[in-house]
Predict the structure of DUF4442 domain-containing protein.
Amino acid sequence: MRKWLTSRFGKARLMRWIMTFYPPYLGAGVRVRHISDDFRDITVSMGLGRYNRNYVGTQFGGSLYSMVDPFYMLMLMENLGRNYIVWDKTADIDFISPGKGPVFANFRVDETLLDEVRRQTANGEKYLPQLQVDIHDGAGTLVARVQKTLYVRLKPQARQA
């Protein structure tokens, strides 16, 4: 069934649909606006509603972080393929200004990053790339900056090949 779904709708489109109805995202008002077919460009947004509003009426910090949490990991997994282990290792969020309305984040992964990951892991060693994503409001004001460190390594069977 999964193969039928991905061939009929495309993997990126199917992932966007799944993420749209993922209960934590649905409740928090997170929307995946775009996933490119090659999983190298993703845009997400989150409105301000009663389920993600904090005591002072701005975006809840946990919702801001959850909005950006899985995407770099998913993007690397899709672009590197099944021979790689990809995990989130650490994350740091710096709250710059209050989110008083809808917020947006854009993720991009380029060939330079993918080549560097492949080079650093070619001998079976782990690699810990650090990636950053900014969260902006509708006017372009920086709301938060998230620094993610991923863990990437070739799977044991791929190291021996």
Notes: The helical segments are 2-9, 11-20, 23-28, 61-68, 71-80, 111-121, 156-160. The chain has one domain: 2-160. The radius of gyration is 17 Å. Residues 2-160 form a domain with the Thiol Ester Dehydrase; Chain A fold (CATH 3.10.129.10).
